[in-house]
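$ run holo --ligand "protoporphyrin IX containing FE" --emit tokens
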Amino acid sequence: MTHATSEQMATVPLVDVSAVGATDTPLQQAMRLARRHGPVFRRRLHGTDRLFVTSLDLVTELADEERFTKHVGPALENVREFTADGLFTAYNHEANWAKAHDILLPAFALTSMRAYHPAMLTVARRLIDAWDARLARGTAVDVPEDMTRMTLDTIGLAGFGYDFESFTRGDDHHPFVAAMVRCLDWSMNKLGRDPDADHTAEDEAFRADAAFLATVVDDVVGARTASGDTRTDDLLGLMLGAPHPADGTTLDAANIRNQVITFLIAGHETTSGALSFALHHLLKDPVALRLAQRETDELWGDDPDPEPAFEDIGRLRWIRQVLNEALRLWPTAAAFAREAREDTLLGGRYPLRAGEGVTVLTPMLHRDPAWGDNPELFDPMRFAPEAEAARSPHAYKPFGTGERACIGRQFALHEATMLLGLLVHRYRFVDSADYRLRIKETLTLKPDGFTLTLARRTSAD
Ligand code: HEM
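-- output --
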């Protein structure tokens, strides 16, 4: 442990929010606390304290893998109730983390992205068909709802060869989505519980939902095993059949179930939010939208229904910048936690015990002074190559950090860039509801009730 004199030790502001009680927007509440109390503060809720940090210098330190590692904090402990030792919620020391990570990594290599591209395009076209039908009827589209349909079908088809058929269910989602959202909501709400209240009914409802998720997973796995298909070139194939590169063992049945639930959730919920925020910003920023349309026109000409090649997606640089910037302002998995490997002083002045959790509040890190004078401004130029090269890599962490960072990042970005490219190429967006951004939290972030109306692009647009 590094020693510091008592003068060097800093006092961390302690903010007790128990009087306000549980809120359904805890993340936005924490952002307000950071604005008011600065980049390091301790939040107390019903006797439980949590340390938050938001500044680039401290996050840079927390990203040092020699001194810090992922912390499975209270939110993920709750999610563990239904994903157990799946990749996202596994403890660092659990043998199944390293084992599954090694076995599943090939599913996220560049060659695999190439293999997923056709399934991603198939589902993007389902969304476009649904949006064409809305356009023909002149009715608005509910953006987050349709993005969720799109991303669930994509991870289902590309990762598991399983079709959730989300666009043929009318206004309903696949019941997996409703059960999953309730499970995530339960995990979030449990964080702010009044310890004296009775939560039996909520807990029973949660158990029923978690059991339902498991039956969907059994269907997904059962469909593959019944087909006699032994491919190992997608996620499910790797989970079921691939031996560990070092010791030749495969994943056990309980862990496979945890991984399938993990990937079905992690693989769609956050990407859906990211696409929704990106569309929101494009709707409100005609210049950024114009540049996006120009980029797709250069690639696909005036064909409203192009056949994007795998390589095209890497050429949609502006659209990728739009997505990056949307994820800067609203990183849809908006916090991650770190813990010290040994007792230490963070920033040379905040004592931390080994194993003690620290939450990085990503949306506030993304508004650090390193981002300039007007961090609230949506400006995709922040992700121009020169601007990126001039900035610390630790200023931007929508996908977490280090060894436990998001394994699905390229998957999400390929899928989202392609869909956004196809949408801006085909439609004009009309802000018929004069939408004002409100953010809904269900552990992840989404623009609440965001709708828009579509019009066909003409050659003059
Ligand atoms: C981990 C964000 C898409 C699968 C993470 C973490 C973040 C994140 C912040 C780290 C959490 C922590 O440190 O506790 C996002 C965002 C996405 C996205 C913002 C979309 C825009 C995806 C997709 C998949 C995926 C598409 C799968 C196909 C995972 C998994 C982990 C993870 C399995 C755990 C990795 C490990 O600990 O080994 N993600 N994610 N994510 N993500 Fe993503």
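-- notes --
The pocket of protoporphyrin IX containing FE is lined by residues 70, 87-88, 101, 155, 262-263, 266-267, 270-271, 274, 331-333, 336, 398-400, 404-408, 411-412 (CB under 6 Å).
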